[in-house]
Specification:
- There is one protein chain.
- With 444 residues, the chain is an alpha/beta fold.
- It folds into 3 domains: 125 residues, Rossmann fold; 229 residues, tm_1862 like domain (pyruvate-formate lyase- activating enzyme, Alpha-Beta Horseshoe); 56 residues, Beta Barrel (OB fold (Dihydrolipoamide Acetyltransferase, E2P)), CATH 2.40.50.
- The protein is built from 13 helices and 19 strands.
- The strands form 5 sheets. A 6-stranded parallel sheet has the order 2-1-3-4-5-6, sandwiched between helices.
- β18 and β19 form a beta hairpin.
- The structure holds S-adenosylmethionine, iron/sulfur cluster and FE3-S4 cluster.
- Iron/sulfur cluster binds next to α6.
- Its cofactor is [4Fe-4S] cluster.
- It comes from Neomoorella thermoacetica (Clostridium thermoaceticum).
- Catalyzes the methylthiolation of N6-(dimethylallyl)adenosine (i(6)A), leading to the formation of 2-methylthio-N6-(dimethylallyl)adenosine (ms(2)i(6)A) at position 37 in tRNAs that read codons beginning with uridine.
Length: 444
């Protein structure tokens, strides 16, 4: 008898934490004999790795669950699993069970290593399972050897977050901050380099507080120094930086390490001190502007990106104008802009002064218009320069061309052969758009 193929498809929502978790689940499943497939229709197991940072993210998941219900009726053996941050919220597992009773498995972020075993149990018993433990499980290190996927890789350095920004659900669903031991991080980076990786992105909700919970006194600057020493590695990135914890020592260290890329994602969230305080961010706009000046002084050509929230409870027109003013002063290369979304269980969700959606939309539009003008001007200023690009593969918008990123994290599209994927090439920038640059290769 021919054995049936075991196949899976993972659909990932949210941030790089989830992307990394999804990779880990894919590794676990492949270890257990499953093959990844491109289409949901071909999969024997479908996993939705969910995000709940804003309401929109949750709505997408409920929409998707509705779509895949039909697949279950045509294939009763299909196993549908929901994992990720949504599952960690109180009451949400019950809500999904009610709204989508055809879901077979609800699995918390601290229990992912149980995935293959649970799927086998579900197949054998034909009974749904809910496995949601503490968010703060131990840092698990003895997972199967991870597979590199091309020349770039995410490497988690901390789990969870201790900051409790008043709008944010992440500390509730991902638990308190836990740092991985430096030797485990370095071992993982070396293994990835052995598999052909040349660029790593170190991941944490606040990379700047790395090591505070470890007894050996290492901090983020010390970790960067050790990663920088890994032979064969060419580029180091890191997200996310917290302006409160970005020390002058760290700025200097970054300026001295050749592999650390000239880009910082430094979410400011708001430009008004009153709102920053209500957000519990722990810095002022003056501190932020000084930090930006220091980064630009010590790291010439550095690109800066940010996250901004409009319509936080109580935000007045004057507060919002402070945000516009800060954005105009800093001249960010790019910004992710969000309308405040009240998250159940967070402080801001019940603060007085909740704003109507129309006000939030109008402010978001003004902010985006300003930032788009700045992004375009910043890109235009780069035209004519020769830059190093790590080729990521065919461009999504024009598959006949290649796309890749500069050290400053600018997306560049240029003609070239697919075989260059994963390589570093020299490109002259020829044309600027708001979100990307066009270029041509200088040498092969
Ligand atoms: N730890 C990072 C930080 O400190 O910025 C990223 C956290 S979150 C995954 C990414 C972004 O989502 C935040 O920077 C913030 O701008 C936005 N965000 C978080 N909660 C939000 C909410 N309730 N409404 C709107 N945007 C939110
Ligand atoms: Fe959320 Fe703030 Fe933690 Fe970032 S630092 S994950 S915004 S609580
Ligand atoms: Fe979303 Fe969880 Fe990341 S809530 S933004 S996937 S940590």
């Amino acid at each position: 008898m021919v054995k049936a193929r075991k196949t899976f498809k993972i659909i990932t929502y949210g941030c790089q934490m989830n992307q990394r978790d999804s990779e880990m689940m894919a590794d676990l499943l492949q270890e257990a004999g499953y093959e990844p497939v491109a289409q949901e229709e071909e999969a024997g197991v479908i996993i939705l790795d969910t995000c709940c940072v804003r309401e929109k993210a949750e709505n997408k998941v409920y929409g998707k669950l509705g779509q895949i219900e039909g697949l279950k009726s045509s294939n009763p053996d299909l196993v549908i699993a929901v994992t990720g941050c949504m599952v960690q919220q109180p009451g949400v597992a019950e809500k999904i069970r009610q709204q989508a009773p055809y879901v077979d498995l609800l699995l918390g972020t601290g229990n992912l290593q149980e995935l293959p075993q649970l799927i086998e149990e579900i197949k054998a018993m034909h009974r749904p399972r809910v496995v949601v433990g503490e968010q703060e499980g131990q840092v698990v290190e003895d997972l199967p050897r991870r597979r590199a996927r091309g020349a770039q890789a995410f490497v988690t350095i901390t789990y969870g977050c201790n900051n409790f920004c008043t709008y944010c659900i992440v500390p509730y669903v991902r638990g308190r901050e836990r740092s991985r031991r430096p030797e485990n991080i370095i071992k993982e980076v070396k293994e990835l380099v052995d598999q052909g990786v040349i660029e790593v992105t170190l991941l944490g909700q606040n990379v700047n507080s790395y090591g505070r919970d470890l007894e050996n006194g290492i901090n983020f600057a010390g970790l960067l120094e050790r990663v920088n020493d890994v032979e064969g590695l060419k580029r180091i990135r890191y997200v996310t930086s917290h302006p409160r914890d970005f020390t002058p020592e760290l700025v200097t260290t970054i300026s001295q390490l050749d592999k650390v890329c000239e880009h910082v994602h430094l979410p400011v969230q708001a430009g008004s001190n009153r709102i920053l305080e209500l957000m519990h961010r722990g810095y002022t706009r003056e501190h932020y502007l000084e930090l930006v000046a220091d980064l630009r002084r010590q790291i010439p050509g550095i690109s800066l990106t940010t996250d901004l929230i409009v319509g936080f409870p109580g935000e007045t027109e004057a507060d919002f104008e402070d945000t516009l003013d800060l954005v105009a002063r800093v001249q960010f290369d790019n910004a992710f802009t969000f309308m405040f979304s009240p998250r159940r269980g967070t402080e801001a969700a019940i603060m007085p002064g909740q704003l109507p959606t129309a006000t939030k939309k109008e402010r978001l539009k003004r902010l985006m218009e300003l930032q788009n003008r700045i992004s375009l001007a910043k890109n235009e200023a780069l035209v004519g320069q020769e830059v190093e690009i790590l080729v990521e593969g065919p461009s999504k918008t024009d598959p006949d061309q290649l796309s890749g990123r500069t050290r400053t994290n600018k997306l560049v599209i240029f003609p070239g052969d697919q075989s260059l994927t994963g390589r570093l090439v020299k490109v002259r920038l020829t044309r600027a758009q708001t979100w990307l640059l066009k270029g041509e290769m200088v040498d092969g």
